[in-house]
Amino acid sequence: MRPLRDLISIEDLDPSQVLAVLDTAEQLLPIADRRRNSVPTLRGKVVCNLFLEDSTRTRISFDLAAKRLSAEVINFSAKGSSVSKGESFKDTALTLDAMGVDCVVVRSGSSGAPLQLSRYLEVPILNAGDGWHQHPTQALLDVFTMRRHLGELAGRHVVVVGDVLHSRVARSEVQALKLLGARVTLVSPPTLLPPSVASWGVEVAGELDAVLPDADVVYLLRVQRERMHRAFFPTSREYARVWGVDERRLALLPEHAIVMHPGPMNRGVEITADVADSDRAVIVEQVTNGIAVRMACLYLLLSGDADATEGSA
């Protein structure tokens, strides 16, 4: 396996690297789920969480992941920092370099920001979401969750539903699933499909009900109203009727199939409350798995080949 230098895009990974992250996360999952204990794997390392866009789940997940590995954490946000005063991205990077950080986790509303940062810094850069471009650790935690429920993903059918156009998660998700040999079908309002979707190597379906009986996973994307500057569908009620998953649609799925969502959910739009709270939905489990997967990414970027759980406390 080629060593990980940065994690900016799923496109930069090969199948062996994806499997290395998943296998390492499996080792680390018992530690990720602890409330107090940690392992000394990254003791002495400094991880900077550079969040230039609002986030709750991802920021806290990375914070916990680093601390579970005993790294020191610097949390840096745009609000109240020199960025809000007009400091350039380059000067922010040089400031981080001067502080001696060992890894930068960056989230930005601008596509390409993590790649730009990697040109200024020699330390590993980990993309926590950039614009409409990529969200690699979300895709990795999702395929990790799928694999824990379904086993190997080769030949499995994953139906991705909703706002594909504005979703960095969808792009990363499709790439990760294809690397592992899964079959992917997109179901979306035509207005929320990107023009480039024909090059993605996936199927596109017009009706959700038609593909559910053959699905192993239904992955519901959040309707990203904050990124929409015009009307892409008539009303939220209409969206829920045509593309949302309710109890009737849940019953169309095979018994083993699971329902997923990257969060935060718009209950009553992409998913009804009874489905979100059902035992078929693994949305809360995705959050716990996200800590383990982000621990694995930090470990693979910052440490050697020793057992990831060595010296557990």
TrEMBL record:
The keyword Thylakoid does not apply. L-aspartate binds at residues 85, 168, 222. GO terms for biological process: 'de novo' pyrimidine nucleobase biosynthetic process; 'de novo' UMP biosynthetic process; amino acid metabolic process. One of its GO terms (molecular function) is amino acid binding. Residues 5-147 form the Aspartate/ornithine carbamoyltransferase carbamoyl-P binding domain. It catalyses: carbamoyl phosphate + L-aspartate = N-carbamoyl-L-aspartate + phosphate + H(+). Carbamoyl phosphate binds at residues 57-58, 107, 135, 138, 263-264. Keywords: Pyrimidine biosynthesis, Transferase. Pathway: Pyrimidine metabolism; UMP biosynthesis via de novo pathway; (S)-dihydroorotate from bicarbonate: step 2/3. Its EC number is 2.1.3.2. It comes from the Bacteria. The keyword Transferase applies. Heterododecamer (2C3:3R2) of six catalytic PyrB chains organized as two trimers (C3), and six regulatory PyrI chains organized as three dimers (R2). PANTHER family: ASPARTATE CARBAMOYLTRANSFERASE, ORNITHINE CARBAMOYLTRANSFERASE, MITOCHONDRIAL. Catalyzes the condensation of carbamoyl phosphate and aspartate to form carbamoyl aspartate and inorganic phosphate, the committed step in the de novo pyrimidine nucleotide biosynthesis pathway. Belongs to the aspartate/ornithine carbamoyltransferase superfamily. ATCase family. This is Aspartate carbamoyltransferase.
